[in-house]
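Mods, move this if it's the wrong board.
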Amino acid sequence: MCGPLPGGLITLVLGLAGCQSAETVAVTPRPPDAPPLTFPELVTLSKNQVAAAHEFFYQDKWDQVRQAATALRDTSNHLGQVQPDAIPQAQRGKLPELTKELTAAATLLHSAADEKDVDKTSEAFRRLHLVVRQLRTD
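Not the wrong board. Structure tokens:
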């Protein structure tokens, strides 16, 4: 059984890897008292969450696809709360629109998973990939 882990996304992922799959770790809600993630950590997390959602989709695990969509909306919310001085200059002007699109695509993914609609899910993934591709840490 896994015990509590100190802060940091990498520590969390490495510490839980023996207990849960990487996909499950990526979409597991963070504890409310966890320290906030940095902009680069949130970008990495969003990419891992999209990858996890895709893996769940390939396995027809619709409940987990919905969980990933919820996690993506939460990550988008956290991205929108990052202080501007902690965001790379090139991303500052784009981030509000990117977080809005990330939230919209995650909402579409959640709805598509509810309906078990493969075409709608594929469209949600297309939009998600376009957004996370634009999220840069440099």
